[in-house]
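User: quick one, sequence for these tokens?
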């Protein structure tokens, strides 16, 4: 038993180290790459020297906040997806599919529609308003899902997912109605944002997102033992003395908080919360004490790689990062849909 535990820990450390190495490599590549490629010597001088290429402003004020946001968004959405898959015992569950992202997007588009159009993309007030607006929308969506799915004092995993898909459709339709009433330029900007665009390249947004993630991800890892029990089934969890509905609700709140805070700065990035937990599970197994940190690292790598591709594939134009993730995730979703009973 001790030998198996040591082997599992060693495997986790090795995989985590490899992912951290990939993340560091992509961090450097992403700073280097963009509309204008910055030589590595100038990157070094901007951080540690005399800024020989006058690139410090470009790196510090524009590229670095975006890179850090990409890493945090990837980690947050991936962990949120892993939690949702575990509490619903459904491999197809993730924030973008069961309606959490759609609720957050609807709230932000509604705020945009009722205020000053797409000026929210540059408005200073948005630094404070947009994250809470997105979180409010995400929690309203979650409350609706949980309330409608609740039957005879409990929530079954399959009802949670099916109701979530219905709520997702409803909020998406509402968002489209609001967009159709906007000015053409506002419609285009909100459509790009909803497709998954890391628009909030601002250190204030980096700080606000970091605060949410530094609280919620450790909370999720602390609750990992309950996620392990949930995977055994409701009856076994009850037999082991787990307060099933109470812990499921707590974990749902954590997942919604992670998804809402990430949507507020990254838009509706779909499928990331689906593919990252699955890849992590194949690499390390279903022990959530190891699965959640690995899922966070994988999500960060996937988003950073996707965002780098999105910035350079049609340069000087940029693709929404959500499109790149969807190109990667949609085939995997279809594969899982065909494989799942």
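Assistant:
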């Amino acid at each position: 038993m001790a030998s198996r535990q040591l082997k599992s820990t060693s495997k986790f450390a090795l995989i985590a180290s490899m992912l951290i190495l990939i993340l560091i490599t992509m961090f450097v590549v992403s700073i280097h790459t963009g509309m204008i490629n910055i030589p590595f010597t100038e990157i070094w001088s901007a951080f540690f020297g005399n800024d020989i290429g006058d690139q410090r402003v470009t790196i510090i004020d524009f590229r670095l906040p975006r890179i850090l946001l990409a890493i945090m968004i990837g980690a947050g959405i991936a962990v949120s997806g892993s939690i949702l898959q575990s509490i619903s015992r459904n491999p197809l569950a993730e924030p973008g599919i069961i309606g959490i992202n759609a609720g957050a997007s609807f709230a932000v588009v509604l705020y945009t529609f009722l205020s000053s159009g797409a000026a929210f993309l540059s408005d200073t007030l948005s630094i404070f308003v947009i994250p809470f607006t997105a979180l409010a929308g995400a929690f309203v969506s979650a409350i609706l899902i949980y309330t409608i799915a609740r039957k005879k004092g409990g929530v079954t995993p399959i009802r949670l997912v099916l109701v979530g898909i219905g709520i997702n459709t409803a909020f998406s339709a509402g968002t489209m109605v609001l967009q159709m009433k906007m000015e053409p330029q506002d419609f285009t900007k909100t459509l790009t944002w909803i497709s998954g665009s890391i628009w909030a390249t601002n250190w204030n947004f980096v700080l606000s997102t970091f605060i949410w993630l530094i609280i919620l991800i450790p909370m999720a890892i602390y609750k990992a033992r309950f996620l392990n029990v949930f995977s055994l089934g409701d009856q076994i969890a009850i037999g082991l003395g787990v307060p099933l509905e109470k812990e499921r609700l707590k974990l749902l709140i954590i997942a919604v908080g992670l998804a809402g805070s990430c949507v507020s700065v990254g838009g509706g990035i779909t499928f990331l919360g689906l593919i990252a937990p699955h890849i992590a599970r194949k690499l390390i197994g279903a022990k959530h004490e190891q699965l959640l940190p690995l899922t966070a690292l994988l999500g960060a790598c996937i988003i950073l790689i996707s965002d780098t591709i999105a910035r350079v594939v049609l340069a000087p134009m940029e693709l929404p990062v959500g499109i790149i993730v969807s190109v990667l995730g949609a085939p995997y979703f279809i594969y899982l849909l065909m494989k799942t009973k």
